[in-house]
Design goal:
The complex is a heterodimer of chains A (about 325) and B (about 220). Chain A contains eight helices and twelve strands. Chain A is of the alpha/beta class and about 325 residues long. Chain A has one domain (about 20-255): 3-Layer(aba) Sandwich (Rossmann fold). In chain A, strand 4 (about 80-90) and strand 5 form a beta hairpin. The longest helix of chain A is centred in the middle third of the chain and has 16 residues, at about 195-210. The radius of gyration of chain A is 20 Å and the shape is globular. The two termini of chain A are about 20 Å apart. With about 220 residues, chain B is α/β, with parallel strands linked by helices. Chain B has a single domain (about 1-90, about 140-220), classed as Rossmann fold. Helix content of chain B is about 25%, strand content about 25%. Chain B is built from six helices and ten strands, in the order βββαβββαααβαβαββ. The longest helix of chain B has 18 residues, at about 155-175. The radius of gyration of chain B is 17 Å and the shape is globular. Chain B starts with a strand and ends in a 15-residue tail after the last strand. Chains A and B meet through helix 5, helix 6 and helix 8 of A and helix 4, helix 5 and helix 6 of B. One magnesium ion binds near residues 66, 67, 112 and 188 of chain A.
């Protein structure tokens, strides 16, 4: 597929993106029987931008490559992976060395799995992280404030990760990012298992970070949470962005949403119709060169199986579908 | 058949009771929701009911009988974090079929692809791993399923599919389900009834189970729609 040059129109600010992902593809190599190597493609020709001052929500199918996109940006992919395409951060090429240099400092990840906490290290040491000795005191003070804000008792600092409940571990991870001086924050499902109060607090924090000038990428299945604080929403499916929609379009039965997948996702929410859709996201080897949503699409036409539809601008959104206008 | 926890008290530390005289009862075929603040002890209660945590006071029984300790556990627990429940050094097919063989029907109803069986746990996304955990837990010997925040890691469409499969299998096998979730909208759709575990947090005065009192009346229709 030809790469698409895509300028962001929903943003409207006209400013330069803090992070630009261009034509990114990601594959894994696996040895099957003996020495036969197979390539498994996870992300295909993806384009994405994150702007300072903005929250970009990434929602979509489980296993669509959201976490791996985050890992690609952070430079923490496993060794059997291969990345192509390019990334730019502040107008400069984001190489592996650069990623390592910025990781945990300018670019911060709140990982999806709480197993990222070091099981043998006390919480406060993980939260204050790799700061210089002279700053330790200051960091401890910040930790006290942050913990208080997240309703974590001071003695949590002395605990080991296995002593925390799921929601507490989650809040510890968020605190860790809050205490760094990151300019790009990537939060990979930071809210599951949080009760309402912690959820609202966490969302407010992301919004505050954006207001302070950070770019925030919020990966989440909680569309309602995304709608509360995001400026744009990108919908992922099978390693592809199918739609970039406006917040206002998520209403009623989803009639303003353009892509049939986005609409189905919206109608599947328990607060909406809790409506089921048959079938499953295809593996890359099940794709036949057409639209990735073809098998499950109720408005498909013959053409849809021939070429991958281009991401095109419709109204104020971007949609990858032949049959919407 | 009833799974009952009676007068359950438990603390990880002596001076800090997490659960204080909690009573809970789950019948066959029943779908019971459990809500409560973060850290209120929901997961702890789940572990006790499923026999993972032994140092508690009170009794857990099925129809008045103590739980069998050597046989297949009739109370299956699915965790909040599926990656913690699997041995990272086993392939998915070995994890899946440990103890009993999972039927192809169950695999496909949870959308598990055959090629995933050859993978290691760290090669699957969170939502994919969770579907394995469920397929393994819903065996014919299972009498009760304890689902601790099991679909927070998947997208909404997969969530409906998973719950439809669970409710379908559970109905056929007459399994009782305890559903822990912070998502009230989901509980409204899948549960017959919802209870709340609340930790009254004034100066060391802890738990109280507001038993079966949570807005029963306001809970709307249940699935399957
Ligand atoms: N192994 C352990 N050692 C010490 N304390 C523990 C341990 N496991 C849990 N706790 C504590 O027990 C309390 C209840 O934990 P539990 O996981 O049951 O909460 P929960 O209600 O499920 O919360 P959440 O919704 O955040 O997951 C928490 O205060 C937690 O710190
Ligand atoms: N190390 C790996 N080797 C092979 N496949 C992987 C690996 N890690 C993840 N995958 C696959 O990549 C896809 C995307 O994973 P992930 O980014 O974790 O999904 P999600 O969007 O749910 O966060 C999934 O199908 C998953 O099975
Ligand atoms: S391109 Fe065709 S198959 Fe794909 S979503 Fe649009 S109508 Fe459906
Ligand atoms: Mg993920
Ligand atoms: Mg819990």
């Amino acid at each position: 597929m030809k790469s698409e040059v895509m300028t962001n129109i929903i943003d409207g600010s006209g400013s330069e993106a803090l992070l630009k992902v261009r034509d990114l593809s990601l594959s894994f190599f696996q040895y099957t029987s003996g020495l036969r190597q197979t390539e498994l493609r996870i992300i295909s020709n993806m384009n994405l931008e994150a702007y300072s001052g903005e929250v970009l929500a990434v929602v979509g199918s489980s296993g669509s490559g959201k976490s791996l996109l985050a890992h690609a940006i952070l430079g923490i992919l496993p060794s059997n992976s291969r990345l192509s395409g390019s990334m730019e951060y502040k107008g400069q090429s984001l190489t592996q060395e650069k990623k390592e240099e910025l990781r945990g400092k300018e670019i911060s990840l709140i990982p999806q799995s709480t197993t990222y906490l070091d099981p043998l290290m006390r919480i406060s040491d993980q939260v204050t992280g790799s700061v210089e000795k002279k700053d330790k005191g200051l960091m401890r003070e910040r930790q006290r404030d942050t913990f208080q804000r997240y309703n974590l008792r001071p003695d949590v600092g002395k605990m080991l990760p296995h002593e925390l409940s799921g929601g507490m571990a989650r809040r510890v991870l968020v605190s860790t990012a809050l205490m760094s001086s990151a300019e790009l924050i990537i939060a990979d499902e930071p809210t599951p298992g949080l009760d309402e109060r912690s959820l609202d607090e966490t969302l407010r924090y992301f919004k505050d970070m954006a207001k302070k000038g950070c770019a925030v990428i919020l990966i989440t299945h909680d569309i309602e949470a995304a709608l509360k604080i995001s400026d744009r929403i990108a919908i992922f499916y099978a390693g592809t962005i199918l739609e970039e929609a406006r917040i206002e379009d998520f209403t009623n039965e989803g009639e303003n949403l353009r892509h049939p997948y986005t609409r189905a996702l919206w109608n599947a929410l328990p607060q909406n119709r809790f409506q089921k859709m048959e079938g499953h996201q295809p593996m890359q080897d099940e794709l036949n060169g057409g639209c990735v949503f073809f098998e499950r699409c109720s408005i498909r036409t013959e053409d849809c199986s021939k070429d991958i539809p281009q991401l095109k601008r419709i109204g104020e959104g971007l949609v990858r579908c032949n049959n919407v206008s | 058949m009833y799974l009952k926890g009676e007068n359950i008290s438990f603390g990880y530390r002596k001076d800090d009771l997490i659960l204080n005289n909690v009573d809970i009862s789950l019948g066959s075929g029943e779908v019971l929701g459990l809500v409560g603040d973060s850290g209120s002890g929901k997961s702890t209660l789940c572990k006790i009911l499923a026999g993972y945590e032994k140092n508690y006071q009170g009794t857990v029984s099925i129809d008045g009988k103590k739980m069998p300790s050597n046989a297949y556990n009739p109370v299956q627990l699915i965790f909040q974090h599926p990656e913690k429940a699997v041995n990272p050094r086993w392939k998915m097919k070995d994890i899946l079929n440990e103890g009993h063989v999972v039927s192809q029907d169950v695999l496909s109803s949870f959308g598990i692809k055959t090629s995933w069986l050859e993978r290691w746990p760290n090669e699957l996304s969170g939502g994919e791993l969770q579907r394995f955990a469920l397929a393994r837990a819903l065996s014919p010997e299972t009498k009760f399923l304890i689902a601790d925040e099991i679909t927070t890691m998947v997208d909404a469409i997969t969530q409906v599919q998973i719950w439809e499969s669970i409710l379908d299998i559970a109905e056929k096998l007459n399994i009782g389900i305890l559903v822990v979730s912070h998502e009230k909208n989901l509980l409204k759709k899948v549960c017959h009834e919802v209870i709340c575990l609340s930790r009254i947090n004034n100066a060391g005065l802890y738990n109280e189970l507001a038993f079966r009192d949570m807005q029963n009346a306001s809970l709307g229709g249940m699935v399957p729609e």
